[in-house]
Amino acid sequence: MGNQSSTPTPSSPDLFLPVPEPAELQKPWRERVCEKDEILQEVKEFKPSTEVLRIMLYGPIGAGKSSFINSVQRVLLGRNAMIALENSTIIGGRFTKKMNIHKLKMGRGEHYPLEIVDIMGIEAQEGIKHDDIISVFKGHISDEYSFNPWVTIADDDPHYKKNPTLGDKVHCLVCVLPADSFSMLDSTIFEKMDHVRTSASLLGIPQVIVMTRVDKACELVEGDLKKMYYSKKIRDKVHECSNNVGIPLNAIYPVNNYSEIITQDPDIDLFLLIALRDILSFANDYVERELEKDDN
What we know:
- By secondary structure, the chain is of the alpha/beta class.
- The chain contains eight helices and six strands, in the order H-E-H-E-E-H-E-H-E-H-H-H-E-H.
């Protein structure tokens, strides 16, 4: 009996188990059709239909919102940059407490026609008040306003704009989620994020997800960022993001922020630029729709 073969018989249930997909897919789940320099030139030459496009970042604390801002600025300048203050991921905790409007530098004294709004992170308890987020959407809150987790901004506050222009409003909403840990977020955070999405949708504001920390979520991508679109794990994370937040797959952008290295990496640049190019287009589409409403 000890010499009998352990090969499964035809009736063995093991024969009917599905063969798991390999970590690296044979075909990419998303095509990479452009190179870095081509998209960089496209982004630098982008001319919006208004003076400045304004996008707003939101998401849980520690997701990498400030790091994303610095990474985008770094790609555009071609050097290390820090326009948004960051906190160490080891220390963690809430770091951004004010309404920070970051103007992206083109050169000395010059700026791109793009502003990125960074707000207080969303938390299960406390965090930014939902009514304040809506006020940001509508352009009522100005730069440097300190958010109060317990009280919304008053209309007589010096930072409250009673008559905002189209340029003061948010033109695209960007949800920033960490690929390695968003599935462990408290359900209350997803409920609050859904509330934000609903309010943005009612205002017609386009929405995307920037999924950060992909290198921490997938060993294949950590070894070679070029394999981003061949990674089964990243593909599955994108699907999970879509299911949890409700944003379609073609509006979810996995990226790696510049959080460790101090030299330029063309692969990091490429995926950041892919996200930035589409965000600019979506934001400008919104602006053009609003201008058409005014004309009518």
